[in-house]
Specification:
This protein is an all-alpha fold and 235 residues long. It has a single domain, classed as Orthogonal Bundle (Flavocytochrome C3, Chain A, domain 2), CATH 1.10.1130. A two-stranded parallel sheet has the order 1-2. Bound molecules: heme C (4 copies). One heme C binds next to helix 4 and helix 8.
Length: 235
C-alpha cells in the first residue's frame, strides 16, 4: 500500500516536472478563446471584469475612488500598484505588461478565471473535432493537467481577497484598495459572486465534449439553465 502510494506520488511529481505545470503555463490573451466561444465572449464583454481597465482611467468611478482615499483625477492605468488585478496574467509568462500592453490581456479576461490557455486550448480543438465526428467525449482531467482551472475560487481570491486581514492565506502587496472596511459591499463571497450576472458571463449549453472530474461544483446547475449559444472556430 504505502509503497504504491510513494510510487504514485513520485510519478505525479515527475509528471509535474516534465510538463512544467507550475511554471511554464503561458497566457495568450482571449483572442483564440473568443473566436471559438463567441457567445461567452460577447456576454463577457458586457461585464464589469471586461471593463476593469476603464476604472483605472482618470475621472471614472470618482465616488468609489474618493471613498477609498484614491485621487479620482489621477491616471492609474500604468500604476503597478493597480494594474495587476485589472488585467490577465500580471507578472506571469505571456501576461499583460505596462511596457507592452496587449489589448487581448487588458481587463479581467478568460484566462484570469479559466487558467492560462496556451496548453489546453489545443485539446479543446482536437476534442471538439473528434466529438463532432464520432460523439466520443474526452476526459476533463487532461484539461486540468494542461492548466485549466475547474475550481476558480483561488483565482478569484488572488484579486478579491488580497488585503490585510482578509483571512486568505496568499495575501501579498499590492493590496486592493476596495475592502469591506471601505464599504461592506466589497465583501467577497464566492458562492454568491460566481453567480453574479453583472460581473460573470452568461452560460451556454455545452454538447458534452468533456466529461468526468474535475467538474466545477455548479457546472450542472449552470448547464441546466444555460442558453443555446453560438460557436465558432479558431480562424
Ligand atoms: C485578475 C483579478 C480578478 C480575478 C481573477 C477575478 N476578479 Fe472579480 N473583479 C476584479 C476587478 C478589478 C473588479 C472590478 C471591475 C471594475 O468595476 O472595474 C471585479 C469585479 C467583480 C464583481 C462585481 C462586484 C460588484 O461591484 O458588484 C464580481 C461579482 C466578481 N468580480 C466576481 C469574481 C469571481 C466569482 C471571480 C472568480 C471566478 C473573480 N471575480 C475573479 C478582479 C478580478
Ligand atoms: C489585489 C488586487 C487589486 C489591486 C492591487 C487593485 N485593485 Fe482595483 N479592484 C480590485 C477588485 C477585486 C475590485 C472589485 C471590488 C468589488 O466590487 O467587490 C476592484 C475594483 C476597483 C474599482 C471599482 C470600485 C467600484 O466600487 O466600482 C476601481 C475604481 C479600482 N478598483 C481602482 C483601483 C486602483 C486605482 C488601484 C491602485 C491604487 C487598484 N484598483 C488596485 C482588485 C484590485
Ligand atoms: C470572472 C471569471 C470568468 C471569466 C473572466 C470568464 N469565465 Fe468562462 N466561466 C466561468 C465560470 C465560473 C464558468 C462555469 C464553469 C462550469 O460550469 O463548469 C465558466 C464557463 C465557461 C464555459 C463553459 C460553458 C458555459 O457557458 O458555462 C466556457 C466555454 C467559457 N466559460 C468560456 C469563457 C471565455 C471564452 C471567456 C473570455 C471571453 C471567459 N469564459 C471568461 C468564469 C469565467
Ligand atoms: C478551436 C476552438 C477552441 C478554442 C481556441 C478554445 N476552445 Fe474551449 N472548447 C472548445 C470546444 C469544442 C469545447 C467543447 C464544447 C462542448 O462540449 O460543447 C470547449 C470547451 C470549453 C469549456 C468547457 C469545459 C468543460 O468543463 O466541459 C471551457 C470552460 C472552455 N472551453 C474555455 C476556453 C478558454 C478559456 C479558451 C481560451 C484559453 C478556449 N476555451 C479555447 C473549443 C475551443
Amino acid at each position: 500500500m504505502r509503497h504504491s502510494l510513494t510510487l504514485a506520488l513520485a510519478a505525479a511529481a515527475m509528471f509535474a516536472l516534465l510538463s512544467g505545470s507550475a511554471s511554464a503555463q503561458s497566457f495568450e490573451g482571449r483572442k483564440k478563446c473568443s473566436s471559438c466561444h463567441k457567445s461567452q465572449a460577447e456576454s463577457w464583454g458586457q461585464t464589469a471584469h471586461a471593463k476593469a481597465m476603464d476604472s483605472l482611467k482618470p475621472n471614472t468611478k470618482a465616488e468609489a475612488k474618493k471613498k477609498a482615499k484614491l485621487d479620482p483625477k489621477k491616471d492609474y492605468t500604468k500604476d503597478k500598484d493597480c494594474v495587476g488585478c485589472h488585467v490577465d496574467g500580471w507578472g506571469k509568462e505571456g501576461g499583460y505588461t505596462v511596457e507592452d500592453p496587449n489589448k487581448f490581456t487588458t481587463g479581467v479576461g478568460c484566462e484570469s478565471c479559466h487558467g492560462p490557455g496556451a496548453k489546453y486550448r489545443g485539446i479543446h480543438r482536437k476534442a471538439g473535432a473528434a466529438f463532432e465526428k464520432s460523439k466520443k467525449s474526452a476526459p476533463r482531467s487532461t484539461l486540468a493537467e494542461a492548466g485549466q482551472d475547474f475550481a476558480f475560487e483561488e483565482s478569484c481570491n488572488a484579486c478579491h481577497l488580497n488585503y490585510e486581514g482578509s483571512g486568505w492565506k496568499g495575501t501579498k502587496k499590492p493590496y486592493t484598495p476596495f475592502t469591506p472596511q471601505v464599504d461592506k459591499k466589497y465583501t467577497f463571497n464566492f458562492d454568491k459572486y460566481v453567480k453574479d450576472t453583472k460581473a460573470m458571463h452568461e452560460h451556454y449549453k455545452l454538447d458534452g465534449t468533456f466529461e468526468g472530474d474535475p467538474k466545477f461544483k455548479y457546472h450542472d446547475d449552470f448547464q441546466s439553465t444555460a442558453k443555446v449559444g453560438e460557436k465558432g472556430s479558431e480562424d
